[in-house]
Design the sequence.
């Protein structure tokens, strides 16, 4: 399996994981991270909508990465950083997956791994996130 194919598989799994739409009962978009849909929201654990919205944004970013004909080490490093940022609002069920994906992309960016060596682990973690996202965020819309 070549580099592009493995990368596409791993990123496709992530796109499925993050392709959920977060909306309220009226069909409008959920609040973006850092904002609140209620004026007196108390600080505390991140709301599921924060995570879902972060995954939608991450999905868009990884789709862009997957569409590039030449992915640079800097691209992989930026993607690893984005996974680390999502971890701040992620449910406990996916933090290990986010760590695994981030570590894989970071290793590629440093020349310590290739997509062939970490791609299967990234794909597996992405598929697990898809299952959790279906529970937390609902099906893609």
Sequence:
């Amino acid at each position: 399996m070549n580099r592009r194919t493995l990368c596409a598989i791993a990123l496709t799994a992530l796109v499925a994981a993050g392709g959920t739409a977060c909306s309220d009962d009226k069909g409008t978009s959920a609040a973006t991270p850092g904002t609140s849909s209620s004026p007196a929201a108390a600080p505390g654990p991140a709301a599921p909508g924060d995570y879902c919205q972060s995954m939608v944004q991450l999905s868009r970013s990884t789709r862009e990465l997957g569409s590039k004909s030449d992915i640079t080490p800097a691209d992989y490093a930026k993607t690893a950083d984005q996974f680390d940022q999502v971890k701040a609002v992620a449910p406990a069920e996916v933090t290990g997956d986010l760590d695994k994906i981030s570590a894989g992309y970071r290793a590629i960016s440093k020349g310590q791994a290739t997509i062939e060596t970490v791609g299967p682990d990234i794909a597996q973690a992405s598929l697990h996130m898809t299952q959790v996202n279906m529970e937390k965020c609902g099906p893609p819309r």
User: Anything to note?
Assistant: Residues 58 and 82 are 7 Å apart (CA to CA). Residues 15-46 have pLDDT under 50 and may be disordered. The chain has five helices and no strands. The two ends are 31 Å apart (CA to CA).
